[in-house]
Every structure is written in C-alpha cells, then in structure tokens.
C-alpha cells in the first residue's frame, strides 16, 4: 500500500470522529450535566480528529509531484502497517465500537425528566465499557503523531507494539496484558463462588495497575529486571524482596513494569507457570490501605486463577453472611487461608507502597512472619525506606533506589525523550530546545521521576521559547520548592477554592468525582442550602485551579497527583512558609473540617423534610445533591479520625438524640442504606441513634446517649438488631462494653433469634466473646435455625 491509502483512511476516520462528536453534542442537549466519561469521549475524539486532519494534509502533500517524491518515508511505513492491523485500522474499529455504544444510549430524547435522570445515573455502568476504547484510541493517536513527526525509527518501534501478527508479539502488549490479567474474571466460577470472591475482595487492583503501567516507557526498568537479585527472586520460591526509595523516585511505575514483565514471563513458562497476584496500597483510596482488603484481594486473585475455592473459605463465608448479614473477613482467617491455598504451587505476590497501610503494627507483623510460614510465596514489596519497616522485614533482601540513581536517571532520560516526542504541547519545539530541556532534566533529576514530571508539565504550558529557556535557568531544586511555585501562581481570588480542593483530595475517605468535589468545595458550615452563586462556573475549572497537584483517574475521580503532595501540605516547612502557609494542613484539623462540611450538607433544609417517598423522588434528590451519599457515609470516619471535642460531639448528638429532628435523622438513615437507587426504600423505620453510634464505633457519642437515658434495647437495624448487636457485629469493643455496663440485655435476640454472643463467636472474636460471657451471655440460646454455638466457639473457649 502507498500513502494514498492513508488519505482514504483518514477521510473515513474523520467522518467516524464527526459521527461520535455529533452524538456527544446531542447528548449534552438531553443531559443537564455532562457525565465525566462523555466529556472524556469528546476530548479524546476531538484530539484524535486534529491528528487525523494533520495526517490527511501530510498525505495529500506527499502525493504531489516533487523532485524527491515520497520523501516522507514514515508515511510509507504507516501505510504498510495497514495490512497488519495498523493504528488506522485499530482506530476505525474502536470508533465504530464507540459509535455503537453511544448511539444505543442516546438514540432518542428520554421523554421526561425522570428518564433523563435514570440515563445520567446509568453512565457509571457505561464508563467501564468506554474507558478501554478511549485508552486504545489514545495509544493509536500517539503512534500517528510519530508518523507526522517523521520519526521513522520510533514509528517502527511503536508499530511493532501494536502489531497482531503473532500471539506473543510484544507490540500487542497492552491488549495482550489486558487479556491475560482479565482472565480472573472469565474463570468458570459459578454464582455462589462469585459471591464468595466479592466478599473476599472489595478492591480491584487492575484499575491501579492499568493506570500505572501506561506510565511505563520502553526500555525503562531494565536495570532492575536484569539484576541477579530480581531473577533469583523470580525463579526461586520463598525469596522475598524489598524495593525501597525516596518519595517521587518512581516505585509504583517500576513495580507496574515488573508486573507486566512477570505476567508475560509466567504465561510463556508452561512448566512452572507461577500464579501472579498484586496489590496497590493507594493513598487515594482508603480501602486499599487496609490489610484485610489487601489479603482478601491477593487470595481472590489466586482463587480465580486456580478455579476452585477451598472448603475453609466457603464455610467462613457462610458463617459471616448468616441471616442476611455480611461481615468482612478477618485477618486471622485470611492468613490461614493464604497459607493453605499457597501450599501446592509457587505464588508471586507484589505489593506497592507498604508504608501506606493504615494498621502499621498488624501489617508489619504479617510480613515479619511470611518468610518462615509461607515458603511457596515470593513477596516483592515497595515502600519508603523507614527504620520501622527495615526492622520488621526480616528475610527480605533490600534493593535501594538511592543506590541506583545512575540507572534511574537513564530511565528518566527515556521518559523525557518520550514526552518531548509525543506531548502535543512540546512537539512544536525545535530539536535544539528539546535537547536543552533533556539535558537540564538529566542534570538535576537525581533519580526524582516526580520532579521531572512536574517540570515538563510546567514547560508544556509555556508559549515561547524565551519563556522556556528562562524557566530552565531557574529550575526548582526539589519537590518542595516545585510545589511552592505551583501554589504561588494561584491568584488571590482562587486561593480559598484551591485550598479546599487540596483538603478534600488529601483526606477524602473515598475518592470524589469532579461533580462531587465541585459541590464539596462550595459548602459553608452555616449553610442550610447550597448557594448556587458560590459554585464554580464549571466543575472542570477545578482541574486548572491546582494543576500539577491533582489528577483525574480513568473512571473520573479526582485525586491528589502524588503522595509527596500530601506530605508537602502536612510538612512543618509548609506551615512556616510565607508563600504557602495558607495551604498547610494537619491531620486532625483536616478531618474535623471535612466532618463539619459533611454534617452541614446532610443537615440542609431539603433533608429536614424527611426521606424520599418514591424512587423518582430519591433519584431526583441524589441528582440535585451529588455529595449526599459520600457525606452521609463518610462523616463518622472523619469524626473518628479527628480528635473529637465538645463541639463535634454536639453536632452528632443533634442528629442522633431523641429530641433531635427525626425527619432529618431518617433522611440520613435512608441515604446510608440506599447503596443503589433501587434500594431507596430499604431502610429501617425504627432506626435509633444509639444503634448507629454503636455500629460506627462512636464511643463518646454512645456514652452521651446512655447518659441521656435512651432505651438501650430498642431494635435499630433492618433485622431488629439492638445497639449491642451493632457494636459486636462491627467489632467495636469499647462501645459494647459501655452498653453492657449501662445494663443492655446481653441475651436479647434479633429477628433471626441471633444473640450478640453468636455474632462474636461466628467471627472468632475472643475479646468480645469474653466480654459477653463476663456479663452473663447464655451459651445455650439457639438461633433461628435451632443452632447453639457450633461455629468457632471451641477455639475461642480454648483461649479463655
């Protein structure tokens, strides 16, 4: 094929782009607010159309008679790739798929407001379908940019990656890896087994891996992959590695590169073929910082690849979900299960950011013993180099990135060159300027990937070569100075909004969407409704407020760009900085501020009217109040993370006390129980403040409610459980002890005839079992199935 084929293909693709964009524009007429993924579609396809237009013009020019006809050899390379699933063919396939999805969703007007709301809410289901297509389009766009830049060598390399001529071709790496890792989800598991796997793991590490692996660049990390330490660890079961490094040294990206390597390696090694499992302890997601979720996810991955579930896991799941309840698996059980299922074959486990796990003592206790108890598992963990971690990772060989700065700087050089070649905001520069940028980055990087990324982001916003050269002559010395300069550029009028954005993304217990964050930063504690005039004009304005310090994930969540940003905001240097002190945060003050904002939001006048009375009304409520679910569920966690004082406790008492606004309380109860809009009516009308205070472990609130004289034994949840049931079910020993000391009935049963003792014994919680027995719990009580304590109480009694 010749460049004429590119002209024809470009025309067809431009028409396909226009078709997709036309659907987007029509959709905006239907929806009041743009779903994030729809905006992402428009942005990505618009950018692709720009590249195609440039490619089309280049191909036209190449066809014109001239003395050196066909001199643009990169176009010939691109044309030849068309016979073998080249980027233009892949673009065509993906655009057609995208058009089909959008056409099915927005083929006609919804007809009424209720259907429009349903349509908007259902976009969360579409994001997972559309996101992979957008990722492939972005990759194809980058390849086409290489053709435009006439970089024939880079183009050949990139085309080798997207070729599908052979099953094991490295060029199809993104799709091959997606297929390999997604094999978890296509194992022949029946519905009962799938329920067990979902119970084991609430975290999907694929999302974190997929985000990080796209930051890996060809040829990087080879110093680690080719090292004797890594290859010995990979090939010999029972060896453990600890990769330590300073903040911003690229540990997460390097680990993702290792995971990619291991997945391909394991797939090719048919004789040994170890099981690969991984987990990211991500500061952006508090659930991923929990040891229970980490172990559950690892076990879930191993089980999916093995195809069977051990009876121990099935039995524990059954007891933990008895009578319609569902309590998360506990660490002792997970440790036993992991050791059990890893006995028969080699398992490789990779864990990123060990230092970000919340329960440091329990987590390090686990890793301290793995070397002796789990000989078939090879662990590779990353973290900052901290003395506490070093003392506990017994048997882990330590590789320090600080000792490999020269090799890391080589990776940084590859990353810098890639950015200069593919970033549209930097491509316009001539080779001399690009060379100066590359040399400046290499001269000052000192192994700091994050520092280089920030500098390139800053340079990409400059519009003249003079400004770029001036910036290169005044580069900040480290990340702290880099962040100082970013904050200094924020205008006085925007500084308060910027501070609130950083507060929320640094301490939110779950990531917020752009729409949720747009609402959150407009909340004032004395509001009883959200003043529309206090909102930013457009949610997307948030991204430019603190550009470089926050980022948006592929699923549309706004997060802090790097853990070093949070470290910077919490550092004493920032508190004493004349330039940035107004942005300084403290853990206690930040959690207290988010608690107050959430309490203000769920107390708005609208919610004081009581719960929604229909699904339509509830849908309209959550559409109008996008932060409702987050605020309702999260405020107890912010409250506990802060140091509660009289003012904070008084706010909770206003919501929970019997003399408070019952309608407001029930609006909150409805919101926390309606985890899906179809469950708008799935909440207990007899709910009590004492039950929820005990369930959330709000010990000081429980104490205040007891002193106020509330009935201790009233049912509070959907199954008739009392406050004591709630405290025991969630493992809150201090709250349970307060209730028992105040006279709560230790033997009272819920609607399933379950006493608190059965709940504690089912979870093998010896501390709670001992407490309940001390207050007279009856071991002869039978539950609704006629069972006495027959689950795990034997182990418990042996320890008493």
Question: In terms of topology, how is this protein built?
Answer:
Blueprint: H1 3-30, H2 36-63, H3 73-81, H4 87-105, H5 113-121, H6 123-148, H7 152-162, H8 173-181, H9 191-200, H10 205-213, H11 222-225, H12 228-235, E1 240-244, H13 251-268, E2 275-280, H14 291-306, H15 311-320, H16 331-341, E3 347-352, H17 360-373, E4 377-383, H18 387-392, E5 396-400, H19 405-422, H20 431-444, H21 449-459, H22 465-473, H23 479-488, H24 495-507, E6 512-513, H25 514-520, H26 541-545, E7 550-552, E8 557-560, H27 563-570, H28 572-575, H29 587-602, H30 615-624, H31 628-641, H32 646-656, H33 662-673, H34 689-695, H35 699-707, H36 723-729, H37 733-741, H38 756-762, H39 766-774, H40 793-799
Parallel strand pairs: 1-4, 1-5, 2-3, 3-4
Antiparallel strand pairs: 6-8, 7-8
Helix pairs in contact: 1-2, 1-3, 1-4, 2-6, 3-6, 3-7, 4-6, 5-30, 6-7, 9-14, 10-13, 14-16, 19-20, 19-21, 29-31, 31-33, 32-35, 34-35, 34-36, 35-37, 36-37, 36-38, 37-39, 38-39
Summarize the structure.
The chain has 800 residues and is mainly alpha-helical. It contains 40 helices and eight strands. It has a five-stranded parallel sheet, with helices on both faces. A three-stranded antiparallel sheet has the order 6-8-7.
Structure write-up:
This protein has 800 residues and is mainly alpha-helical. Among the domains are: 3-164, no CATH class; 190-404, P-loop containing nucleotide triphosphate hydrolases (Rossmann fold, 3-Layer(aba) Sandwich), CATH 3.40.50.300; 424-475, no CATH class; 477-585, Arc Repressor Mutant, subunit A (Orthogonal Bundle). Helix content is 58%, strand content 5%. It contains 40 helices and eight strands. Strands 2-3-4-1-5 form a five-stranded parallel beta sheet, with helices on both faces. A hairpin with a 4-residue loop joins strand 7 and strand 8. Helix 14 packs parallel to helix 16 (331-341), helix 19 (405-422) packs parallel to helix 21 (449-459) and helix 38 packs antiparallel against helix 39. It is globular, with a radius of gyration of 29 Å. The termini are far apart. The relative contact order is 0.06.
